[in-house]
Write a structure and sequence with these properties.
With about 100 residues, the protein is α+β, with helices and mostly antiparallel strands. It is built from two helices and four strands, in the order βαββαβ.
């Protein structure tokens, strides 16, 4: 099992939702109005007058095949939306209760 966390500009909400449906991810937790700044490029997303954009984040625990599909999907979104910002992070999950 893998945990996949996707952090993305809220402008990409519809595309991320479509990706989850496409790869048949049913279970996830979503956080809205997430603030932050990318480590490589892009503007801060702080919800302020100066930096008005905000992010959302989704965490889902899925099997390895689905994790790979999610990561590929995030790469595709990023190719066409680099200015908005989207990143995915993967962790190994030892046990789910």
């Amino acid at each position: 099992m893998k945990a996949i966390m996707i952090v993305y500009n809220q402008a990409l909400t519809e595309r991320v939702g479509e990706l989850l449906d496409e790869v048949q991810v049913r279970g996830f937790t979503k956080w809205e109005d997430v603030k932050g700044r990318g480590s490589k490029t892009g503007d801060p997303h702080m919800g302020t007058h100066t930096w008005p954009a905000l992010n959302s984040a989704i965490l889902s625990v899925v099997d390895e095949d689905t994790a790979a599909k999610l990561l590929r999907g995030v790469e595709k979104i990023n190719e066409t939306a680099q200015a908005q910002g989207i990143r995915a992070f993967q962790w190994n999950i030892g046990q789910v209760v």
